[in-house]
Amino acid sequence: MSSMPTNPASETPASPENDPASTLRINHTHAGIRARAAANAARDLDDAGLYFNRELSTLRFHVRVLEQALDETHPLLERLTFLLIFSSNLDEFFEIRVAGLKRRIAYGNEEPGMDGHSTSSIFHEIATTAHEQVERQYHILNTQLIPALAERGIHFLRRNNWNKAQREWVSSYFDDEIMPVISPIGLDPSHPFPRLVNKSLNFIVELEGRDAFGREGGMAIIPAPRSLPRLIRLPKALEREECQEYVFLSSMIHAHAEQLFPGMTVRGCYQFRLTRNADLAMDTEDVADLASALKSELLARRYGDGVRLEVANNCPSHLSDFLLKQFQLGHEDLYLVDGPVNLSRLMAMIGDSERADLRYNPFVPGLPKALRKDESLFDLISRQDILLLHPWESFGVIENWLAEAARDPGVLAIKQTLYRTGSDSGVVSALVDAARSGKEVTVVIELRARFDEADNIALASRLQEAGANVIYGVMAYKTHAKMLHIVRREAGRIRHYAHMGTGNYHSKTAKLYTDYSLLTARETLCEDVHHVFQQLSGMGEPRHTEHLLHAPFTLHRRLVELIDRETAHARKGHKAMLTIKCNSLTEPKLIQALYRASQAGAICQLIIRGTCCLRPGVPGVSDNITVRSVVGRFLEHTRVFHFHNAGKSETWCSSADFMERNMFQRVETCFPLLDKKIAQRVRKDLDTYMLDNCQSWTLQPDGHYEKRCPGKDEAAISAQETLLYAYAARP
């Protein structure tokens, strides 16, 4: 782009008669951006070249997580944690996203998405990338992390490194703990190939000789008992001084495999793991009882179609081919690994480790000044809005408020949505206490929260037994909104209180995820929350809301309008700017609205943690758009939308990402920050993320992400560390 004149407002625009470039209708805006409105209006915003594939973009996010294992600014055990999170993320990616692709291919559905690529081409590209990154993952583990841990006294002992005393202890452990619960399965006509549980650790064994019944040796399967840990720490008496020493369960089984087949020779024993399709395929239209139907589906999830086979890299090809045939998989689905096939199970070791020096420094969540007084939360919230930023500010405030509400004789009713909560939740305990004390408690539980279905069924039963009204939401729409509504009698009149947030009511994830919580007694906001709860529990036309945006009814349309408003301001020559921070950006109409804003000259700052289908930096379309992804100690989870609006700025928080499912297939809420000081604080937080040059990655026009690093004379800025210092309690 050519340099701007020093005084754009004084420049005389060229006329069509004397300037062949005038068809571009270049506009100079106060934001310093030249908008090419007319020319770009002709650009087809449905052009597949303007979009990245969703699955590939998601996989790139998982790779950014893996990159953290190489970042030496993280403590050593935290680097290992990132490597294990990559494993867990990849498991779910195959269980859901890859499983969906394979299902579409099986049904002959090759129709390209908005990115223009066929289903098969995307699957093949995913397979290529996933193979490369899995090989890289084990290389990082074996050549960097394990040696570095060994230097600091944490050892993973291979069989050939056991000394005599350790070997004897392992033998006793095998006899006492493993042998009684393990069940080897010989493969012959009367023992067909077993039905193995999703992601379970197993071994394929090649045998030689005859057994007690005269059967010739062949092959057998050893399913590792799911009740046993995958990593066992040696007794302190067997450890070297100031060391922690661990033995893999797989090593124990390998070392004693012949004990499972007495009189026969084990020619080889190789670990493997099958990942299955874990997406629930329940037809909600034909379900009479959602909870009962889900229980049946959860059992089926453990035995869905195979999508990926992980095998030890020393396994002979004829055995891996045999397994592929059993699971009806191709060679692209085979992943040969140089280490344990179930790495994510090592997370337990990190939690039990005594080495605090290899972890992040702990911190105590802070409290806003207003909450540091010994005062009823109701009295405080009745006077002012309270905003919390978790995990740096305490989630315990919400739990304490609910506990206070359960005890308060003036509280008449409590309504709450629960999506992911946790089985030992203080929130649920408070709701149980409130119901038992005779208060009207209504809880909207989303039973279909992926991988939390069983926990949610259990907590629904617990609440029902306490006398709470439990609603499972709306069959065709997941209830993803985060809302709490409390009705209290004060001085002879009814007063309403509400909590709205960007994250779940889950005390454990509130220590790991970044999320905003707004506590308010504003009548209009509380009335809006009340209307949404009525919509969920009753029937009828959509309820009018004064401030709240509500999916699937008003949220998508209004967000497009808010973006288009910035577009209009830019076209009038006013400063136009917006900042969107969320987890994913995939919805085509919202992407196209952002493209239009960019074309008009509006500055579009996007902070998208994970999946992003928008292509930034396309000349004439998205050259005013930047996309950043922040990956660090805490999982970025806040959804915040700021619009400059020609100086009359608006800042919103939401439970929804910019995705089709959030806009059209879920119940979501988006709420404005009406308190000016709170809105200003959140905008300052957003500015901090934009300055990050330590944990921020910038999306390039070709789809790869480039790590931002401090320049030669530039201070290092980590947004998460800055916010921790700003909001956490001082030591």
UniProtKB/TrEMBL annotation:
E.C. no: 2.7.4.1
UniProt keyword list: ATP-binding, Kinase, Magnesium, Metal-binding, Nucleotide-binding, Phosphoprotein, Transferase
All copies of domain Polyphosphate kinase middle, residue ranges: 166-348
Binding, Mg(2+): 420, 450
Cofactor entry: Mg(2+)
Keyword ATP-binding tagged: yes
GO cellular component: polyphosphate kinase complex
Enzyme's top EC category: transferase
Known catalytic reactions: [phosphate](n) + ATP = [phosphate](n+1) + ADP
InterPro entries for this protein: PP_kinase, PP_kinase_C_1, PP_kinase_middle, PP_kinase_middle_dom_sf, PPK_C_dom2, PPK_N_dom, PPK_N_dom_sf
Gene Ontology biological-process annotations: polyphosphate biosynthetic process
Domain Polyphosphate kinase N-terminal positions: 51-156
UniProt keyword Repeat present: no
Residue span, Polyphosphate kinase C-terminal domain: 377-540, 548-720
GO terms for MF: ATP binding; metal ion binding; polyphosphate kinase activity
HAMAP family from the UniProt entry: Polyphosphate_kinase
The protein's role, per its UniProt record: Catalyzes the reversible transfer of the terminal phosphate of ATP to form a long-chain polyphosphate (polyP).
Name of protein: Polyphosphate kinase
Lineage, uppermost ranks: Bacteria, Pseudomonadati, Pseudomonadota, Gammaproteobacteria, Oceanospirillales
